[in-house]
Amino acid sequence: MKFYAHRLGLALAVTTLLACGGGEAPGDSQAAPAPAAGSDLTPFQLENGIGPITEAVTLGPVDPEMAEQGKAVFELKCSACHKTTERYIGPELGGVTARRSPAFIMNMILNPQEMIDRHPVTKQLLAEYMSFMANQNLTQEEARQVLEYLRTQATGASQ
Fold first, then answer.
1. CATH number, domain with residue 96
2. How many domains does the chain have?
């Protein structure tokens, strides 16, 4: 009986690890690495990720209402794998806005599978965290709200 309980626990742990992940590691630099030989990524994609956000996202002052909506989305869809102040199943996201462009963050939220398959930064994160980021099927509006919330979690961010 103990043997089966152990195997079930192990299976649940592996499933949990595969369900979340991605994002940014605390020590990552902002600059995207040079593409591997034969890479088909454009300079924009290297800096801003691969996905539906195909233009740079210009940010103004933090929008408190949008940030509150983003916090609710984050708590519902992201917090099972990500925390803002510590490494968890996936990377700590409190300072992600200092490490990644707004478009990169949104593309990672909206298009995690292709980002993991093709982008050198996310391939490196997969190797480090050994877990895939699940596609939570957020809309672009929800991804933008989460981004706004994450802006409030950056060190020294005004809320």
1. 1.10.760.10
2. 1
